[in-house]
Design a protein that fits this description.
78% helix, transmembrane, membrane, transmembrane helix, 411 residues, mainly alpha, Growth Hormone, Chain: A
Length: 411
């Protein structure tokens, strides 16, 4: 490798974990904020429906596969992960070509999406291990991914005539390509060889800590059964309302949504940077998040109105601003509570904490796809269900933060 390339890669080396978390979340958000909307604006509405359905289903499949992978405690070298990421970039380019030019069917779309996400599972494990080592929520890296996704979405809506294959392709493929080059072109310390969960549960050989059965049960109730499902239900209802407007040729509502998200997420990034190590501020963030969810649920019916007044725009702007400001803060508080449960539940023998954290991150990615899949094919009492899950999450997080006082940093 030339010295001109080696220098920036050496500089990025210490930030590999955060960069993987950022790129992974950006690749997760990009289809919903950019790619699917690009297909609608490019008069490829049938392809958009096929891709949306394939994307949602493949996220569920890959989430289950990621949990299985972490349970076996398999790890690959960074170079191997880089090769897999470059392969995922190729599959995404093939996906875009088929979506714009055909042939594009449901089975082929699902196969390409599923293969892409399965290839990225070993890469995501590097980010998970970084989070557990630091003991701090990765929310700030995810917020940066949100901001970049929203900027691309705004550009798309402001200049719909520019939508074409050659604009969409680099935006979709570049995240995978950059990460793949970073992982393959620089020799980082290699991971251990694949081992079974029984050999690593004590954490002596590869740094994986074990968690007691009681702590694992508490983690499961708060992080898996409750999580942010309440927020996901409301988000899915809002997303489908915006999708209907965009398909009808009305982009004003979607544009107002993205501009509001950009401003609120910028404020959320600043707030999160100031509160990630303070238990009192995390408690306040969780209370704000819970209050915001109640407001969003009350305002949700206004999005379905067909009047030409300003009530829909006002309701959307208020919902989105409060959600995208308090949403990342609430998620960060949830992360802090879950990391506290893992940290204080460590023991000599038990379930590896990487398995539990991977299950949480996988479930978090599956929450919105599952909610959207159900709502696309069936009617739900979104308001009631969202209130129930919001109450469960907020009470659980507040109880954990008060119990452990937010001490999650690993010594």
């Amino acid at each position: 490798m030339s010295h001109g390339v080696a220098f920036p890669l050496a500089f990025l080396g210490p930030f590999l974990g955060p960069f993987i978390i950022f790129m992974g979340h950006f690749a997760y958000l990009l289809p919903f904020y950019f790619t699917l909307n690009a297909l609608i604006l490019g008069n490829r509405q049938e392809a958009e429906w096929i891709m949306r359905s394939a994307l949602l289903k493949s996220m569920v499949i890959s989430g289950v596969a990621e949990i299985f992978w972490s349970t076996l405690c398999w790890q690959l070298s960074h170079r191997s992960c880089g090769i897999l990421t470059l392969a995922a970039a190729f599959l995404q380019s093939l996906q875009m070509f088929c979506a714009f030019f055909g042939p594009y069917d449901a089975l082929g779309a699902f196969a390409l999406q599923c293969a892409t996400q399965l290839l990225m599972i070993p890469v995501a494990q590097i980010g998970a291990q970084h989070t557990l080592k630091q003991g701090i929520s990765p929310a700030r890296y995810k917020i940066i991914a949100w901001l970049l996704s929203v900027v691309l979405a705004i550009v798309l809506l402001l200049f719909p005539n520019l939508v074409c294959f050659w604009l969409v392709l680099p935006c979709v493929v570049l995240p995978y390509t950059m990460l793949g080059i970073l992982l393959t072109a620089r020799s980082f310390p290699t991971a251990t060889k694949p081992q079974s969960a029984s050999k690593t549960s004590s954490g002596a050989s590869n740094g994986v800590s074990a968690v007691s059965a009681t702590a694992a049960a508490g983690f499961g109730v708060l992080g898996l059964l409750s999580g942010t499902i309440g927020e996901a239900l409301t988000d899915s209802a809002t997303t489908l309302a915006l999708r209907s407007e965009l398909k009808a040729g009305n982009s004003e509502l979607a544009l107002a949504n993205h501009v509001t998200v950009l401003s609120s997420m910028s404020l959320a990034f600043w707030t999160q940077s100031k509160s990630e190590r303070s238990t009192q501020k995390q408690v306040l963030c969780m209370l704000l998040w819970a209050g915001c969810q109640v407001f969003r649920i009350a305002a949700l019916p206004y999005l379905g109105k067909q009047d030409t007044g300003q009530s829909r725009f006002v309701a959307l702007a208020a919902m989105v601003f409060l959600d995208k400001y308090t949403g990342p803060l609430g998620s960060a508080s949830l992360d802090s509570a879950l990391l506290a449960v893992l940290y204080h539940g460590r023991c000599n023998k038990g379930l590896p904490e990487t398995v539990l954290w991977t299950m949480r991150t996988a479930v978090a990615r599956m929450e919105r796809p599952i909610c959207q899949l159900i709502m696309l094919h069936a009617s739900l009492d979104v308001e009631t269900l969202s209130l129930i899950f919001t109450f469960m999450t907020s009470v659980g997080v507040l109880a954990v933060l008060q119990l452990y006082d937010g001490r999650t940093k690993v010594d």
